[in-house]
Specification:
Elements (H helix, E strand, L loop, with lengths): L17 E6 L6 E5 L2 E15 L3 E16 L2 E5 L2 E5 L8 E11 L4 E11 L4 E7 L4 H10 L3 H27 L1
Antiparallel strand pairs: 1-3, 2-3, 3-4, 4-5, 4-6, 5-7, 6-7, 7-8, 8-9
């Protein structure tokens, strides 16, 4: 039974073949499309090496633009870098900035996210113009409202529900 559930990837095998692929692109002609976005850039010294047991990517991608989807919003990617360092396998080190415009009933905001560090655990900082706290930025991205607007909306809903309940009670007793 243990053998039936053994992870095939954990079994030591001789590699089927080695890899040594160099990727170079004309400026802005590298395109990466997946479920997270549609990115454009330039490959600089990008190498796919190793073997079928362990694929290693090294080199740089200079990101020139594109779209990144996050929390239901389309963020526009500004120029940045993705560096595949020796030994980090699939996870590049990022230095990217992206922005999206989000409007509420009261105000229009430009939300900016900066991500630095390894892709699997980046440090992300946020900002907004006009200024919002980090809590307001998260609220805006998740609910489309700042915390104050959300509190006002909840209060209106609460008052509306109370009035509706009171009207229902009044109608039942009349």
């Amino acid at each position: 039974r243990e053998r039936a559930t053994e992870n095939v990837a954990d079994v030591a095998r001789d590699p089927l073949f080695g890899l040594d692929v160099g990727v170079t692109s004309a400026p802005g002609m590298l395109r990466i499309v997946n479920n997270l976005g549609d990115l454009r850039g330039t490959a600089r010294g990008l190498t796919i090496g190793g073997d079928t047991n362990r694929v290693l990517i090294t080199g740089n991608v200079e990101l020139s633009g594109g779209v990144f989807r996050y929390k239901g919003h389309q963020f526009q990617l500004e120029p940045g870098t993705a560096e595949f360092r020796e030994g980090t396998e699939w996870f590049p080190w990022l230095e990217v900035t992206m922005f999206t415009d989000v409007g509420t009933r009261d105000e229009d905001y430009r939300v900016t996210l900066n991500a630095t560090g390894r892709l699997d655990n980046p440090s992300v900082t946020s900002g907004a113009e006009p200024f919002l706290t980090e809590a307001d930025i998260n609220s805006l991205l998740l609910f489309g409202l700042t915390q104050e607007e959300l509190e006002r909306a909840e209060l209106r809903d609460l008052v509306g529900s109370a009035l509706g309940a009171a009207a229902g009670t009044y109608g039942e007793s009349a």
